[in-house]
Design brief:
- 2 copies of one chain form a homodimer.
- By secondary structure, the first copy, chain A, is α/β, with parallel strands linked by helices.
- Chain A contains 10 helices and 11 strands.
- In chain A, the strands form 3 sheets. A 6-stranded parallel beta sheet of chain A has the order 1-11-8-7-5-6. A 3-stranded parallel beta sheet of chain A has the order 3-2-4, covered by helices on one side. The first copy, chain A, has a two-stranded antiparallel sheet with strand order 9-10.
- In chain A, helix 1 runs parallel beside helix 10, helix 6 packs across helix 7 and helix 6 packs across helix 10.
- Chain A is globular and about 55 Å long.
- The relative contact order of chain A is 0.16.
- The model of chain A has no long low-confidence stretch (mean pLDDT 97).
- Chains A and B meet through helix 5, helix 7, strand 6 and helix 8 of A and helix 5, helix 7, strand 6 and helix 8 of B.
Chain lengths: 293, 293
């Protein structure tokens, strides 16, 4: 069994991005600029956002944080999106989700200029990804594919079972894994809460990508010898052992599943750290106008 | 075994659409108008186009056919798309594929206003379909889903194996069959030319949607008792028995597979006739501005 060290890979990618930013600076080019919009004071969102800003600093990006209180109107937020769309200094920007209930997340996402949509949530980017065209791929699926690449894991012709059909992980990662590309070229099965024979499906999988959000859902008897297991679960569960009073739980019962695996990601330290670097990668691509002119 | 009669279902849908057009006329509303652009004189394209125009007449739509010779430039074609985008009388339009090699099909598709993209090929419509938002669903996948609906075939929790990962059939039908909806809510597996264990995968399927374009690919020993088989294959093969010198061959070895099935579509007369009525349905929705304002 080999542990996939997302933390180390992410650190390596941050270093690579930082080097590229240094070269851009030396050549007198424009420093990539990521803007982020944060509404309210949700604990999780605050943590993610602080981490994104910190990573921008580490790789040498310019970053801007625009804050609104929970009572911001949809109109005000759309006006903000419009300003960022038209701000030529901003290469890419994100609106941190979730948003308060009186605001339509979909409306906000669709208002973002897809050429600045570094979260990859705009329908144009989702559609282009499905068709196999250059686009901004959302951070978590992109991070997972990068792990396959860095560990040189064979995917062609393999059976990849994706657990979960969310718009931000399950569906896009399934779409990517079936493309005629590396990583990809898999036979892909998408399972979800309604699936019959989910256990048998997992047992036949060469690769399992678990993104259900159900702590310790995947047990040893559901995994075949030598499988690759990618755990995308990050459910907060109470813990007496941490200062914060909670810990992150993956979708995989790690202790019993890991001995059977050829490769496995831990939680934390697997897919999680890859997410933010994937956002950074998208911002770099946006800054260099590599995907859209 | 029950034969799915796509021809009869399509006739019924044409009748329903015609009735709705009659009501619109009576109420003094605008008659839906489908425009089609045809480049060159490819035999298959001519046949499809004639059939589309004829169906428009049958259901009471207004239709326009714009023809170009093979030597039309990309610029001229883009100008035509632009005119149709801005023609307020045209509710929806299609550019018949394939196009000559000197023209980028993708560029033409992306130039079409997605609100008039009744073929559902624009990345915005593809993306919105994946996310589960209202959109124009491309004709063949939409036609397949309509057959499930009309025959009241249970899909929830079933294992649906899609053979083929094309952008116009395999990927979109897989995307639809995994949505939390009816028809849908399936465990979906996408197989293709690189798949290992394709046979075993088919054997475990409750529903098989064959869209490989390989005549008689699916044999009896690949299908379990009681499966639902949808044959999307339409390969032209030589035939001494027809006037034209060829016949349409499906992806399914019908004679040996059909006795094992609970439901099966024939070729011709299965999915084929549904494709044009799905385009008509999209045009009706476009005319009524039901999806986009």
């Amino acid at each position: 069994m080999r542990l996939i060290d997302g933390k180390a890979v992410a650190a390596q990618i941050r270093k690579e991005i930082a080097e590229e930013v240094t070269s851009i600076k030396k050549a007198g080019g424009k420093i990539p600029h990521l803007a982020a919009v944060l509404v309210g004071h949700d604990g999780g969102s605050e943590t993610y956002m602080a981490s994104k800003v910190r990573t921008c600093e580490e790789v040498g990006f310019k970053s801007s944080l625009i804050r609104y209180e929970d009572d911001v109107t949809e109109e005000e937020l759309l006006a903000c999106v419009d300003r960022l769309n038209n701000d030529s200094d901003v290469d890419g920007f994100i609106v941190q989700l979730p948003l308060p209930k009186h605001i339509s997340e979909q409306k906000i996402i669709e208002a973002i200029d897809y050429r600045k949509d570094v979260d990859g949530f705009h329908p144009i980017n989702v559609g282009r990804m499905s068709i196999g065209l250059p686009c901004f791929v959302s951070a978590t699926p992109a991070g997972i594919l990068e792990l396959f690449k860095r560990y040189e894991i064979e995917t062609k012709g393999k059976h990849c079972v994706v657990l979960g059909r969310s718009n931000i992980v399950g569906k896009p990662v399934a779409s990517l894994m079936m493309q005629k590309a590396y990583p990809g070229d898999c036979t892909v099965t998408v399972c979800h809460s309604r699936s019959q024979n989910l256990k048998e499906m997992c047992q036949s999988a060469d690769i399992i990508i678990a993104a259900l959000g159900v702590p310790e859902f995947l047990k040893a008897d559901m995994v075949k010898e030598g499988a690759v297991v990618i755990d995308v679960g990050t459910t907060r569960v109470p813990s007496a052992l941490t200062k914060s009073g909670f810990k992150l739980a993956g979708d995989v019962k790690f202790d019993e599943v890991s001995p059977k695996c050829s490769y496995i990601t831990p939680v934390p330290g697997g897919v999680g750290p890859m997410t933010i670097v994937s956002l950074m990668r998208n911002t770099l691509l946006a800054g260099k106008k590599e995907i859209y002119k």
